[in-house]
Design goal:
119 residues, mainly beta, 7-stranded mixed beta sheet, 4-stranded antiparallel beta sheet, 11 strands, 0% helix, 55% strand, globular
């Protein structure tokens, strides 16, 4: 059973920075792609979470246009941990951020960590 432990969320003023981390454990396979999604307040789960950033096993990355140049995703492959460095935060970045991990053919979601950016 894969377990994802997220940390690093909190309250920050606009223009500030936060770093999220997500450590995966318990996988019987190699951890492949890792990513961060966010659930914006007022949007139901049925409307889906939006992809913020993804990092693949080969280290390639992609970002949502809204965070390019401000957020950086990275990973520690030895410890199956993914990070999201968030700089120049804006009030519209306020959301619950969820870690997403693929191992083998299965995907796993973290419980989410709240990020609140005040104006």
């Amino acid at each position: 059973q894969v377990r994802l432990v997220e940390s690093g969320g909190g309250l920050v003023q606009a223009g500030g920075s936060l770093t999220l981390s997500c450590a995966a454990s318990g996988s019987s396979f190699s951890i492949g792609t890792m990513a961060w999604y966010r659930q914006v307040p007022g949007k139901s789960a049925q409307r889906g979470r939006e992809l913020v950033a993804v990092i693949r096993d080969n280290g390639s990355t992609n970002y949502d246009d809204s965070v390019k140049g401000r957020f950086t995703i990275s990973r520690d492959k030895a410890n199956d941990t993914v990070f999201l460095q968030m700089n120049s935060l804006k009030p519209e970045d306020t959301a619950v951020y969820h870690c997403w991990v693929r191992d083998g053919v299965t995907v796993h979601w973290g419980q989410g960590t709240q990020v609140t950016v005040s104006s």
